[in-house]
Amino acid sequence: MSEPLLQLLLANTDSYISGEEISRQLQISRTAVWKQINKLRSQGYEFDAIPRVGYRLKQKPDRLNTLMLLSQLKSSVMGQQIKLLESTPSTQIVAQQMAEQGAPEGTLIIAEEQTSGRGRMGRAFYSPSGKGIWMSLILKPQTSLQFTPQLTLLIAVALCRSLQRVVPISIGIKWPNDLLVGTKKISGILLESSAEDERVRYCIAGIGISVNLDLEDYPEQLRDVATSLKIESGAKVDRTAIITEFLAEFETLYVLYNEQGFAPIRTLWEALSISLHRPITINTLHGKVTGVAEQLDELGALWMIESATGERRKIFSGDVEFHR
Ligand code: BTN
Questions:
Q1: Is the CB of 134 within 6 Å of ligand 1?
Q2: The ligand 1 atom nearest the CA atom of 119
Q3: Which of 22, 130, 154, 193 is the most exposed, having the fewest neighbouring CB atoms within 10 Å of its CB?
Q4: What kind of fold does domain 276-322 have according to CATH?
Q5: Whether the CB of 91 sits within 6 Å of ligand 1
Q6: What is the pLDDT of residue 1?
Q7: Above 90 in pLDDT, residue 192?
Q8: CA distance 131 to 233
Q9: Which run of H or E residues covers position 149?
Q10: What's phi and psi for 262, nearest 5 deg?
Q11: What is the pLDDT of residue 121?
Q12: Where do the CATH 2.30.30.100 domains begin and end in the chain?
């Protein structure tokens, strides 16, 4: 329990307090002090620590707040119900349970931290505390399962447009739904669906956005391939503004999609895509395909001209690799 330690540190923000003094005042061991300091660090608290002098609280974590989110909401369905969690294995699991219990369309589950965040193709998704947006949105589209890839592309468009509105950096969509700055990933989308006889019962749109991570927050193996809005813009970014902007943009495009179908979304996606008209290799479940992607088909698959054969092929799922 680090609450008494926190109170002590908050009462001493203009001076250093030694580990010995903390241990005396709270009547806990020095090891327990050190463990609690580390726990607070993992929750996003930042300290100045000077050996043999002590600790001083430098920064409190930036925490999301449901009332703040609701008061800034610009959407009328999306995000009207919000469940905010401090830590959970994956918001996808919570969202699925809530959808099964009848939660309405637009219900949003957000976690400050995910301990087993999941990505596409069974990969793990790194989701440290207080630094990103890890959220799942419950959707109930009146459609059949074959159309759900369109929804993923719609989410990528909404996310790309809303992020660029809040943070002035250039973001592109790598097919089908990774958001990249240059060659580094800044956001990923995972759409999971439940269906009955091909009819969609609900979809869970899982969205992960790396917002305020610094380079040292990433594990070594991610440093060359991932980035955050803070790293790219050079300034801390307001997570509430991103969430509310995304929900509003998504709602607008979702209404457009329901009224006019996929065609306008496809045009928007193609304009933001960085996967078209350049040599790429796609790693599919059936092997690699190398060529140039031309456009999306009407269901969201990618039309490619294979370079070895000149054959025109449709790719339904896979991972895009860019050629240098
Ligand atoms: C990917 O890039 O492969 C998709 C990543 C999706 C991550 C989000 S974070 C919120 C939601 N909960 C999860 O466990 N995954 C999604």
A1: yes
A2: 3
A3: 193
A4: SH3 type barrels. (2.30.30)
A5: yes
A6: 58
A7: yes
A8: 15
A9: helix 148-166
A10: -80, -20
A11: 87
A12: 276-322
